[in-house]
Write a structure and sequence with these properties.
The protein is α/β, with parallel strands linked by helices. It has ten helices and ten strands. Strands 6-7-8-3-9-10 form a six-stranded mixed β-sheet, with helices on both faces. It has a four-stranded antiparallel β-sheet with strand order 2-1-4-5, with helices on one face. The radius of gyration is 18 Å and the shape is globular.
Length: about 240
């Protein structure tokens, strides 16, 4: 079997006096889309924030390619090859598409910046026609493409993405999910939080169900997608049956 790419080992994390992750343990493999689902407050977004270093774990271990990374800052996680696309719009709206893309590679030497910029435009050709437009003028789907393109500037091994379909039409949702599937097929692993469970399951490899900050189910995505009780599983009501 392939070695674990990311592993949480008894991780405890939260905000102030509030504990969200309760000794959470799970692992993901390279080249897969791993989908985190569960009811509101289950800890899904907290997993991404804790992994990326926006929130320090209180206990337990987080490993990436076998190396302990729990508690490292976001800049260090980027250097390790992990990028984060948060929920909502996270662009510089007054800057052009070009400048938003360039900021994704600002830490690289100038020659590499040019090469990464060219790669991004080749991967997202629709952005090329809008390259000098302000980011605020893009549609919701175009803005999400720009966020992902910017995150790819550092050629991450893993993209963490939180609710990519928020505010997007069903057609654009499909395009974004297809884009993530293509990235995974090309070797970039994806750890995704998404409320549009059926659509996300269709492009995912594995699904992790969280409830109360704990792992309640780890299943192949296609197995769960075929479950006639999917809605109740998503709400954490039928885990015992699996």
């Amino acid at each position: 079997m392939a070695p674990d790419l990311i592993s949480f080992e008894g991780v405890v994390a939260g905000y102030g006096a509030l504990t969200i992750l309760n000794e959470l343990s799970f692992a993901t493999k390279q080249g897969e889309i791993t989908l985190l689902i569960g009811p509101n407050g289950a800890g899904k977004s907290t997993v991404l924030k804790t992994l990326f270093g926006l929130l320090a774990p209180r206990a337990g271990a987080i490993r990436f390619k076998g190396e302990a990374v729990g508690g490292l800052k976001p800049a260090a996680m980027l250097r390790h090859g992990i990028a984060f696309v948060p929920q909502g719009r996270n662009l510089f709206p007054a800057l052009s598409v070009r400048h938003n893309l360039e900021l994704g590679a600002i830490t690289l030497p100038p020659a590499q910046r040019r090469a990464r910029f060219d790669e991004a435009i080749a991967r997202f050709p629709h952005l090329q026609s809008r390259i000098d437009n302000q980011a605020s003028t893009l549609s919701g789907g175009e803005q999400k493409q720009l966020e992902i393109a910017r995150a790819l500037q550092l050629r991450p091994d893993v993209i963490l993405i939180d609710e990519p379909s928020i505010g997007l039409s069903p057609i654009i949702n499909q395009q974004v999910f297809a884009l993530l599937r293509g990235l995974a097929d090309a070797g970039t692993s994806v750890l995704m939080v998404e409320q549009n469970v059926r659509a996300a399951l269709a492009v995912s490899d594995r699904v992790l169900l969280l409830e109360g900050g704990r792992l309640m189910l780890d299943s192949p995505a296609d197995t769960l997608l075929a479950d006639p009780d999917l809605n109740r599983v998503f709400l954490g009501k039928t885990v015992a049956a699996h």
